[in-house]
Amino acid sequence: MITTTEWIFTIGFLAAVIIFDLTFAIIRRNKTTSFLEAGFWTALYVGFAIGFGIFLPHWANDELQKEYFAGWLTEYALSVDNIFVFIILLANLKVQKEKQQLVLLLGILLTIGIRGLLIPLGATVVSHFSSVFYAFGAFLIYTAYKLINEKEEVEYEEGKVVAALKKRGLGTFSIALIALGLANLVFSLDSIPAIFGLTHSAYIVTTANIFALMGLRQLYFLLEGLLNRLIYLSRGLSFILAFIGVKMILEALHGNGVEVPEVSLEVSLGVIVLTLIVTAITSLAATRERR
Question: What is the pTM of this model?
């Protein structure tokens, strides 16, 4: 059980990192982020996330540590896919490189705010209505099916939204921020059920989500050149979401006394890691001539 003091310390630490990132982005708002700089900050934030998971058993337990790593890997993989959609949106809007820093950070802060509202709601629903796992599971399986064509659909919807906003006289910066906000809302609706399929702990859901969102601004500039190479990412994420969806339905059936196989957290973590590795290797191998 996570104490109030541990919650306060954790939220205080995460808030300090976010404020630092916001300040740094504002200072460098008119500068272009280099590949080397993006790589350094991405590695630093990933290191923070892994370090948090390693030390987690000092105030939690080993089970929550496994849930954290499974949740963080899933959320981070979904965030990478979201980054590619952001690249498409900002490229279509022709946002200047120097302005992309602030647009991205404000969009990420908006995502944290949206998830900050959805996580307590999801935790309350899960704790009071066990049957919600049927709905969450079915929704994730449906999302897995839709995810394969996600980029094309988001690009089409974004085009309609942008056209409407331009008619109202909004500038490129404002339109980009609104477009990212709408995309973030859609992504959050996929993300929250996915992580509740791996853990029931609001603490793990919160920390895994925030650590997965940290450094996405720098990750954007790091992955920009890989847009056409990770061609199987959506398929890999589709498999992960479908797997978690089936796991949630099996868990709900088991809770209602139905004899069905149980999927352990170790198996879930293994499936997630293996899927991401296979997805990355096969994508890079299939596109090695595009370097």
Answer: 0.76
Distance from C-alpha of 43 to C-alpha of 218, rounded to nearest angstrom:
10
pLDDT in tens, 78-104: 877 777 777 767 776 777 766 777 777
How far out from the chain centre does Cα 99 lie?
A: 23
Return the amino acid letter for 281.
I
The enclosing H or E element of 291 equals none
Structure tokens at 194: 């996915």
User: Which residue, among 223, 153, 141, has the nearest Cα to 183 in the 3D structure?
Assistant: 153
For residue 96, give every residue at least 6 positions away whose Cβ sits within 8 Å of its Cβ, in sequence order, or none.
Answer: none
Q: What is the DSSP letter of 59?
A: T
Q: Can you read off the two tokens belonging to residue 181?
A: 């906000």
